[in-house]
Amino acid sequence: MTQPLEQPTVPAAAFAMPPWAVVAGLVLAAATVVRLGFSANAVAWAVVQMVLAAVAADDIAHRRVKNAITVPLSAVAVLLRVGFERSALAEVVIAGLVIFLVFFALSLFLRGGLGMGDVKLAGMLGFLLGWKVLTALFIGAIAGGIAAVFLLSRATEGRRSTMAYGPYLALGGALTILFAHPPPLL
Known about the structure:
Helix content is 70%, strand content 0%.
């Protein structure tokens, strides 16, 4: 008698967000709906807040920012503007492309100091936030810089230590959504 073939399974943990990220995402989503007022646009931004929390958690856990998130969300941000908010379309397309190219050049210049996931995340933020992305990048750079100083002061491996930069970019994006009034998604 032959044994049935086992189906490959993907562990549930591969799709699960840690509790802190769920709480952070829900708090940011709720704050976004309260801040923007209950509307389809506020709900769309609340979903983006949850995605940013998931990106931060995954980057902390696995040191990667998934293309499966950044590329489709960039496309959705542009398509939503095409369908619902054309006044912001040129701004978000130009900002997304310029920020992507600047971060790509930085990644080449820094030779591994900035990963391609971070490059695509920065571009995604540009497609979402338009030129408000500059605020997000400033916040992310300050928060990441503070964390880097802290980590370097405690590092036993010296200056070769690495850190995930995506969470700081995501934090900058989340705070910009809450306080800087980016162009509407819908």
